[in-house]
Amino acid sequence: MRVPSRSPGHQPGPAIASAAPARRRPPAAGPRTASGEPDLAAYRAAVAELLIEVGALADAPSTTARQVLLDQRLREPAIAAVLDATPQGFVGARETLLLEMARHQPNARSSAHDLTALVRIYLLSRVDVMWWRDSGTFLTDGQVDTSTDLVDLEWLRRRGLLAFRYQEQAGTVLGRGLRAVRRRLRPDATPHTAGLRFRRARREVIALLNDLGREFAATARPGTPPLWVTSLARSAEHQYRLRRLGYAAMVPSGHCLGWAADVELEWYGRFGARDVLAELLLARQEAGEINVVDEGQVWHLCLAPTARRRFRRAYEAEMGI
Pick from 229, 160, 158, 208: which is nearest to 313 by CA? Predict the structure, then answer.
């Protein structure tokens, strides 16, 4: 039986008493596509229905009722099929979600501003880890910095080969001070994000973001800034660092597998382009190209394995390889 993965950075949380048998197997079958994979349209619809019920039981006195609800609804075939296909398996994914909910403390940094958002982000991001369950995880910062599977964005940016923008994290006290001054002088000139800790990404993800950036530039009204990327590949080490700072950094994560990215959404509202970008992302999800998770200010996206070869070819064509 598969159980939740553990890490030296993982801190034990309060015990959770379940009103239903924790070790009972999920339904053996769920809706499937012609290829035999779980039906993601059915999964997302079932998650949307679950979120409505979770929202109605979000207050503290409803803890027991909420747990019973989740224990029942997660066993529905459409949801159980996806969770059981993740590296943790159904039991591990269920227990991890309940533990995340027990520990949840809303704060200004976290995209999970309430329990409903937490459940949405966790369940929809499980598609990433189901898709890329056989990919190796970048465990340490050093592995991200040195992996030959990742490309340095700065090298590409200087050669005009990127159709999107990003900002690195300020690495010094002076750098953070200068950035704070610029933000006070021009508060809306750039999105309010810390910037990239790692400016490295898989070739296929770069090609996806370039393609999305070009489509966004062609669709949004004139004067709209280019697509802005706020996060790419991350290490598990950094993921736990973010968790300690209060961010809703889920584990396992598509970022730590190198196949996920976050793009700014909220900032484009001032240019009348937020909904334009949202529609582009959802259309690509509908086409089976990416998985999308609405995290509020930013939206998380992950490349689908079925699109990997196409975007690898696109990267090689763009770079003249």
Answer: 208
